[in-house]
Amino acid sequence: MLETFYPDHEAESAYGLDYEGFHKKGFRGIIFDIDNTLVPHGAPADQAAVELFARLHGIGFETLLLSNNREPRVKSFAESVGAKYIFKAGKPGRAGYQKAMERMGTVPGTTLFVGDQLFTDVWGAKKAGIETYLVKPIHPKEEIQIVLKRRLEWIVLFFYHRKVVKSQEK
User: Fold this and answer.
1) Average confidence (pLDDT) per 10 residues, the chain, 170 residues
2) Total count of domains within the chain
3) Structural domain range at position 92
């Protein structure tokens, strides 16, 4: 049952992934969460985010920001980085992810998802059949409901890491 929440991959940061390698493997669209994935919660797009999206578009990726946040927050960030967006996405529901792929012209096998939360980001993307990257949160200060979810995430990740270690020992 816990496997439902396991990410396909983990990374330190959205900024250190091998996007050129993903493109060579046939991926064409990347869906990102914003808060604590690309910038601290509530922060505007910074130079690193702008440069990352310019790089992704230069490689040939379609990009989309999928957020449960309100439109003003998501739209301003999307405009700053030149990405498509969906606000009030209803994560972890499957519909937002499917709509994201429609907008990008991709399918699950050509789409990646990058986010920092298991119970919204990763779980929703996995339900939609999208390969997932769980990144470490950028900033430790979070709203109380997220802090509570992080404690549950710790339990899931404990068992996930045990499974990963066991599979590497074989």
Assistant:
1) 86 97 98 96 96 98 97 98 98 97 98 94 96 89 62 74 67
2) 1
3) 2-169
